[in-house]
Amino acid sequence: LVNNGVICVSEGANMPSTPEAIDIFQSNNVLFGPGKAANAGGVAVSGLEMSQNSLRLSWTREEVDQKLHNIMKSIHKAAKEAAEAYGMPGNYVAGANIAGFIKVADAMLDQGIA
User: Is residue 102 part of a domain?
Assistant: First the structure.
């Protein structure tokens, strides 16, 4: 892929790229979207469905799509900012891992788990 000039790889499954492949992408400045971030849309829509059902609401397809768009933008922003804050700009693997960890850790602290 790198030899053929690829500029971006986004995983479409759960961790299909080997760590070695990710290293090659990153060392060749290929923008790499890890599955945990790129595939979060399915989980997000499931969460939206649960919210919709519990609130007894009925959103249009367009409303769900807009909510999903906002969620995915938020995931991208969190991963990008975390990577930058920890000295790894452009590393969406590290950014997604760090942002995810911080989100879970903050939730645990909010629940009184220290």
Answer: yes
